[in-house]
Design a protein that fits this description.
By secondary structure, this protein is an alpha/beta fold. It contains 17 helices and 11 strands. A 7-stranded mixed sheet has the order 7-6-5-8-9-11-10, sandwiched between helices. Strands 1-2-3-4 form a 4-stranded antiparallel sheet. Helix 9 links the parallel strand 5 and strand 6. The radius of gyration is 28 Å and the shape is elongated. Pathway: Amine and polyamine biosynthesis; spermidine biosynthesis; spermidine from putrescine: step 1/1. It is a multi-pass membrane protein. Its EC number is 2.5.1.16.
C-alpha cells in the first residue's frame, strides 16, 4: 500500500506535531520508569536495589520493543496509535494497580507483588521501546524529501532527550509532591492518549477503521479521566489498608513520603513506609538516644541535632536547664513545619520546635557540617536507617570525621544505630566506623516495643563515665537502669566488621541483607 503524503499546507504542522510527540513520548516513558522505581522502594523497602532492578528491566524491555518494531511493516500509523493507547492505559494505571494489589495481598506475599511489578515494567518498557522507531519510520515515510537518515536521527533524539531531561527534574520537585504517584501516572497516561489523538487527526486520510480508532481513543481517555478523579480515594484506601490505622496526615515532599496515623494505641509516624516512632513508647527511644550523652557531659550549653525533625530529641535536650542553644539540622522543611504547627504533633514534642532556644536549619547535614565552624558540647545524630546510599553517606567515616571536628574537647556525640539483634553486623559496622575516626565509643541498647531491641553509640575523646544524675520525671533512663543498657548478651555481642566509607558503602548492603531476611 502506498501511503498518502500530507499536502504542503499541512506538512510543517504535521512535522512539528510529530516531533512534539517524541518529546511527550520520552517524558511519559521516563515517568513510568521513575514511578515504578519509586513504588518498588516505597512498598518493598527504600533501597537502591529496587531502583536498580526496575531500571534494568525497563531498559531491557525498551531494547526488546525496539527490536520488535522491525516486524511492523504495514499500517505504521495505525500500529503507532494502538501502541500509544496501550502505553497510556497500562503505564498510566500502573501505579494505581500496584498500590491496590499491594494492599490486597496478605502479609508476606512480597514475591507475588514482585512478579506483578516486573511483569508490568516489562510490558510498559516494551511498548515504550516500540514508540521511537515507529515515529522515525513515520517521519521518514511522510517527509523523506526533508530528512536524510542523519538529520532524522538527530531531530528525533534531540526531542527525546529534552523530554527525558524535563521529567527527570520535574518528577521529584513538582510532580510527586503536588500530584502524588497515582495521579502523576494517570496524568501522563492521558498525554500518551493525546499523542494517539494527534496521530488520528494528522493521518485520518490514510487510516482504516477510523471510527474504531476514535472509539478506542475515547474509551482510553474516559478510563484515565475516571482514574484521575478517583486517585485520591484509591490512595487513601490503599494506605489505610497498608498502615492499618486511620491516616490523619499524608504528604509527599521532594525527599520522602510522610504519613501520620492515629489509632487507639496512639500516633505513629512513617517515612517512606518505615515506622519512625509510636507515641506509646517513643519516650524509651528518645530518652535512650539523648539522656546518657547529655548527663555524661554534665552541663552542656550548645547542642546540635542532625535529623530528628519530629522534635522529640529536642524535647529531651530542653529538659536540661544548662542548655542555651539547640541547632536542629533537618533536610525536609515539611517535617519541621508539620511537627511545629500541627497541635497534636506539637504536643508530642512538648512544643519544642517553638522554643526560643532552638534554631532550625533545613539543609543536608553533610554539606552543612562541611560549611560550618561551630563547636558543640553534645551532637545527637538521629537519621533514618542506612537503607540506601543517600542515607548511607551519613554513616561513613567521612561523615563522622566532620562530626569530630564540630565536637568540643569534652563533648559527646551519639548515633542511633539500628538493631544490634536483628541487624547485628550493621550495628557493629557503625561502631567500627566511628572508631576509625579516633573517637572512643560506648555502644549500648534499649528495648523499644515498637522496634524491638535498638542500638546506640556514644562517641567522645574521653572515656565514658556513668552519670549519677538525670533530669527529673524521666520515664525510662535512670542511674540504676543505665548499666544494663551497656551489657550485650552473646546474641548481640561484637562481631568483626569493615569500616563504612564513601567509596564502598558496605553498610547499605549489609543492612539490606539483614533486614531483608526478616521481611
Amino acid at each position: 500500500m502506498t501511503s498518502s503524503q500530507p499536502t504542503p499546507s499541512r506538512a510543517s504542522l504535521a512535522e512539528l506535531l510529530l516531533l512534539a510527540s517524541v518529546f511527550v513520548i520520552a517524558a511519559c516513558g521516563l515517568v513510568y520508569e521513575l514511578a515504578a522505581g519509586a513504588l518498588a522502594s516505597y512498598l518493598l523497602g527504600d533501597s537502591v536495589l529496587q531502583f536498580s532492578t526496575v531500571i534494568g528491566v525497563y531498559l531491557f524491555a525498551m531494547g526488546l520493543g525496539s527490536w520488535l518494531s522491525r516486524f511492523v511493516e504495514r499500517q505504521l500509523v495505525a500500529v503507532f496509535l494502538q501502541v500509544e493507547l496501550l502505553v497510556g492505559v497500562v503505564g498510566g494505571l500502573m501505579p494505581a494497580a500496584l498500590f491496590a494489589v499491594h494492599s490486597l495481598l496478605p502479609p508476606g506475599e512480597a514475591a507475588a507483588f514482585r512478579v506483578l511489578l516486573y511483569a508490568l515494567v516489562l510490558l510498559v518498557g516494551t511498548l515504550v521501546g516500540l514508540e521511537i522507531p515507529l515515529v522515525m519510520r513515520i517521519l521518514k515515510r511522510h517527509f523523506s524529501a526533508r530528512y536524510g537518515l542523519k538529520d532524522l536521527v538527530s531531530q528525533v533524539l534531540t526531542f527525546d532527550y529534552l523530554g527525558a531531561l524535563l521529567v527527570a527534574l520535574a518528577f521529584p520537585l513538582v510532580l510527586v509532591p503536588h500530584l502524588g504517584l497515582v495521579r502523576t501516572g494517570v496524568a501522563f497516561g492521558l498525554l500518551n492518549v493525546g499523542v494517539a489523538v494527534w496521530a488520528l487527526w494528522l493521518f485520518r486520510a490514510e487510516l482504516r477503521a477510523r471510527h474504531a480508532h476514535t472509539a478506542a481513543c475515547a474509551l482510553s481517555a474516559g478510563l484515565l479521566l475516571a482514574a484521575l478523579l478517583g486517585a485520591d480515594h484509591l490512595t487513601t484506601w490503599a494506605e489505610d489498608r497498608f498502615y492499618g490505622e486511620h491516616i490523619v496526615y499524608k504528604q509527599s515532599s521532594p525527599y520522602q513520603r510522610i504519613v501520620v496515623t492515629d489509632g487507639r494505641a496512639g500516633t505513629r509516624l512513617f517515612l517512606n513506609g518505615n515506622l519512625q516512632f509510636h507515641s506509646k513508647d517513643e519516650y524509651r527511644y528518645h530518652e535512650a538516644l539523648v539522656q546518657p550523652a547529655m548527663a555524661a557531659h554534665g552541663a552542656p550549653k550548645r547542642v546540635l541535632v542532625l535529623g530528628g525533625g519530629d522534635g522529640m530529641a529536642v524535647r529531651e535536650i530542653l529538659k536540661h536547664p544548662s542548655v542555651e542553644q539547640v541547632t536542629l539540622v533537618e533536610l525536609d522543611p515539611l517535617m519541621t513545619t508539620l511537627f511545629r504547627d500541627t497541635p497534636k504533633l506539637a504536643a508530642l514534642n512538648a512544643h519544642s520546635l517553638s522554643s526560643p532556644k532552638l534554631r532550625i536549619v533545613n539543609a543536608d547535614a553533610f554539606g552543612w557540617l562541611e560549611q560550618q565552624r561551630e563547636v558543640f558540647d553534645v551532637i545527637v545524630i538521629d537519621f533514618p536507617d542506612p537503607s540506601n546510599f543517600a542515607l548511607g553517606k551519613l554513616y561513613t567515616a567521612s561523615f563522622y570525621e566532620l562530626v569530630d571536628q564540630h565536637l568540643s574537647a569534652g563533648g559527646y556525640a551519639v548515633v542511633q544505630t539500628t538493631s544490634p539483634l536483628i541487624a547485628r553486623r550493621s550495628f557493629w559496622t557503625v561502631v567500627t566506623t566511628v572508631e576509625a575516626t579516633g573517637l572512643t565509643t560506648t555502644p549500648y541498647h534499649a528495648h523499644v516495643p515498637s522496634f524491638g531491641e535498638w542500638g546506640f553509640v556514644l562517641a567522645s575523646r574521653r572515656p565514658f563515665r556513668l552519670p549519677t544524675q538525670f533530669p527529673p520525671r524521666l520515664r525510662f533512663v535512670s542511674p540504676n537502669s543505665l548499666p544494663a543498657l551497656l551489657d550485650f548478651p552473646p546474641d548481640m555481642a561484637r562481631v568483626p566488621t569493615e569500616v563504612n566509607r564513601l567509596s564502598n558503602q558496605v553498610l547499605v548492603q549489609t543492612f539490606e541483607e539483614e533486614w531483608g531476611a526478616v521481611h
